[in-house]
């Protein structure tokens, strides 16, 4: 009984599958070795490949079924049990059916008690459904393990091309992983496009892309244009939001790129190994600080500092200026540029440096005329990653940047960004199918297109320059 309860758990089933798979690996290698000695025949592949052959047939089918069954069984049971609850409470409104189902689940889990006989019966049936599902899962897994062992051992022989089979399996696995990544991206883009299409069906596309007035919190009247209440015209003009996003990202890059690049050059070209081993971990500590902490720092320290500094020199600095958010975001991005640039610079072949020194170049000339141009494609990738991080950053701009969309390039003024507006539009008690909420998806797909264009442009430049050093 204890053994079955152990196998009924996800951990127990996983441990059993791993144990049998390892034993199959060991036994398969020994079996082929014995057959090759008996038949006086050299195996086609190394013995480990035959072990992996049996391991794959035992492990992967059973573990995949175990994971899928564990993830989907509860949903399947709930859907089946929902019909039973509806039959038991035919007069109950549909919204209360789900509440009853949740109560039954809590009773079956021992979290609630009830004196209702019908509820007790339903909870007992729910428990029996769960037990039946677990028993079937154990039975199916044991069956798959048995047939995996049987099939692999029947096919094992020195003539089996196990290495080719394993390599083909790995190639298909890698292809599947690539397809999953691509399909995930396609799914995200499709979801954004679908919701954005709904928005543009209710709001003029030209007003969104070329409008200079962003005021999503003003109530809209469906299908009407009323300038007195800030209706359709100009209320969702994205230009101020995009300008604010690019302004904050530009300020962040002005801080992060020089400091990150110069620190990378120092660690890669000038610092001794001992100094480098001390400085690089200290610098990368910045990458481990949560972004919400940077947001607190920007709102409580950086913003008052720049405001007081502006008053001291006679400038009017907003309490939620783009400058404070951009500087703090730049500090956050420094480790990304520094670490990536350091790796890229150190990857430049030493022969290029030695050749330049042999021609009489100085250390500075070697770095500026040889190393940095050779590392330029990789540096562009590092800068591109930093720009994408700056454009998509949420917590810092939510806590340090305002929500008022001002069309300005003055870093001392308050601006808003795309991520701030998306957070504002998708939180609270807003109706999901309203024009105001749908505008968040229009902003999201616009931000995606901008980032994609930056990627394409940067990669094309890096490819053209990088060809000179191949």
Description:
- This protein folds into three domains: 2-160, no CATH class; 161-202; 228-469, MetI-like (MetI-like fold), CATH 1.10.3720.
- It is built from 18 helices and no strands.
- With 470 residues, it is mainly α.
- The radius of gyration is 31 Å and the shape is flat.
- The relative contact order is 0.08.
Layout: helices, strands, pairs:
Layout: H1 2-8, H2 10-39, H3 47-88, H4 94-108, H5 117-155, H6 162-202, H7 205-210, H8 232-235, H9 239-270, H10 273-288, H11 291-313, H12 322-346, H13 350-358, H14 363-374, H15 376-392, H16 395-400, H17 418-426, H18 435-466
Helix pairs in contact: 1-2, 2-3, 2-5, 3-4, 3-5, 3-6, 4-5, 6-18, 9-12, 9-15, 10-12, 11-12, 12-15, 13-14, 15-18, 17-18
Label this structure with key terms.
470 residues; single chain; mainly alpha; 3 domains; MetI-like fold
Compact overview of the structure:
78% of the residues lie in helices and 0% in strands.
- For the record, the CATH class of the largest domain is Mainly Alpha
Number of helices: 18
CATH-derived topology of the largest domain? MetI-like fold
Q: Work out the radius of gyration.
A: 31 Å
- What CATH architecture of the largest domain would you give? Orthogonal Bundle
Assembly form of the protein: single chain
Looking at CATH, the homologous superfamily of the largest domain is MetI-like
| Cα-to-Cα separation, first versus last residue | 67 Å
Count of distinct strands: 0
Helix proportion range = over 70%
Q: Shape from CA axes?
A: flat
- Elements, N to C (H/E): HHHHHHHHHHHHHHHHHH
Average predicted local confidence, pLDDT: 83
């Amino acid at each position: 009984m204890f053994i079955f309860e152990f196998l009924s758990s996800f951990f127990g089933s996983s441990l059993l599958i791993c144990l049998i798979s390892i034993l199959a690996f060991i036994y398969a290698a020994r079996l082929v070795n014995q057959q090759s000695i008996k038949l006086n025949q050299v195996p086609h592949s190394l013995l480990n490949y035959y072990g992996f052959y049996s391991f794959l047939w035992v492990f992967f089918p059973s573990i995949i079924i175990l994971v899928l069954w564990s993830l989907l069984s509860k949903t399947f049971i709930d859907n089946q049990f929902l019909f039973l609850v509806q039959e038991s409470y035919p007069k109950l409104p549909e919204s209360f059916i789900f509440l009853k189902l949740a109560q039954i689940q809590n009773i079956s889990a021992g979290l609630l008690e009830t004196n209702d006989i019908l509820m007790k019966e339903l909870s007992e049936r729910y428990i029996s459904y769960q037990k039946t599902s677990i028993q079937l899962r154990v039975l199916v897994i044991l069956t798959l393990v048995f047939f995996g062992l049987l099939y692999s051992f029947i096919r094992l022989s020195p003539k089996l091309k196990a290495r080719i089979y394993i390599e083909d399996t790995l190639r298909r696995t890698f292809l599947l992983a690539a397809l999953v990544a691509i399909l995930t991206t396609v799914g995200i883009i499709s979801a954004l496009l679908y919701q954005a299409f709904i928005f543009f069906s209710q709001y003029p596309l030209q007003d969104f892309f070329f409008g200079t007035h962003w005021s999503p919190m003003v109530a809209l009247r469906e299908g009407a244009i009323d300038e007195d209440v800030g209706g359709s015209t100009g209320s969702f003009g994205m230009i101020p939001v995009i300008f604010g996003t690019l302004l904050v990202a530009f300020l962040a890059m002005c801080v992060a790129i020089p400091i990150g690049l110069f620190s990378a050059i120092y660690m890669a070209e000038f610092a001794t190994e001992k100094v480098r081993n001390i400085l690089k971990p200290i610098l990368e500590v910045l990458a481990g600080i949560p972004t919400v902490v940077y947001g607190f720092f920007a709102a409580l320290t950086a913003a008052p500092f720049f405001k007081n500094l502006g008053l001291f020199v006679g400038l009017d600095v907003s309490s939620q200026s783009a400058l404070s958010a951009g500087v703090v975001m730049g500090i956050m991005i420094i480790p990304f540029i520094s670490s990536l640039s350091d790796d890229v610079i150190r990857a430049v072949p030493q022969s290029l440096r030695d050749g330049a020194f042999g021609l009489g170049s100085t250390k500075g000339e070697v770095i500026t005329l040889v190393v940095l141009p050779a590392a330029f494609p990789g540096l562009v990738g590092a800068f591109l990653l930093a720009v994408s991080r700056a454009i998509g950053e949420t917590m810092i701009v939510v806590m340090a940047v305002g929500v008022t969309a001002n069309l300005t390039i003055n870093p001392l003024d308050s601006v808003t960004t795309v991520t701030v507006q998306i957070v504002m539009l998708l939180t609270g008690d807003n109706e999901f199918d309203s024009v105001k909420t749908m505008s968040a998806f229009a902003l999201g797909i616009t931000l995606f297109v901008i980032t994609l264009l930056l990627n394409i442009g940067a990669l094309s430049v890096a490819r053209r320059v990088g060809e000179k050093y191949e």
